Amino acid sequence: MEKAMHQAHGIGYAEYDRNLEERLKIERKREQEYKVSQQMLNEFTGKVNKS
User: Fold this and answer.
1) Which of 1, 2, 7, 11 could form a disulfide with 15 if both were Cys (CB 3.0 to 4.6 A apart)?
2) Cβ(40)–Cβ(32) under 8 Å?
3) Is pLDDT at 50 greater than 70 in this prediction?
4) CA atoms 39, 42, 45, 48: torsion sign
5) What single DSSP character describes residue 19?
6) Is 30 in contact with 36 (CB distance < 8 Å)?
7) Cβ–Cβ < 8 Å for 5, 12
């Protein structure tokens, strides 16, 4: 899991836990990625349902 965190965000869990600014930056990025994925899913499922 540590490796995944480091690959995805460039820091490990220990630093994530210690550094509030980095944690907030990562969580904002995650939120944005989630919104984009939901938008893509909604567009895809809308096209599938119309077929």
Assistant:
1) 11
2) no
3) no
4) negative
5) -
6) no
7) yes
Which pLDDT score is estimated for 51?
Answer: 55
What is the model's pLDDT at position 22? 95
Q: Burial code of 9-32, b = ≥16 C-beta within 10 A, e = fewer? A: bebeeeebeeeeeeeeebeeeeee
Q: What would the two tokens of residue 26 be?
A: 């990562």
Q: Quick check: 30 and 47 in contact, CB under 8 A?
A: no
pLDDT tens per residue, range 17-47: 999 999 999 999 999 999 999 999 999 888 7
Residue 26's closest CA among 15, 37, 36? 15
Q: For the chain, what is the largest distance between any 2 Cα atoms, rounded to a whole number of angstroms?
A: 50
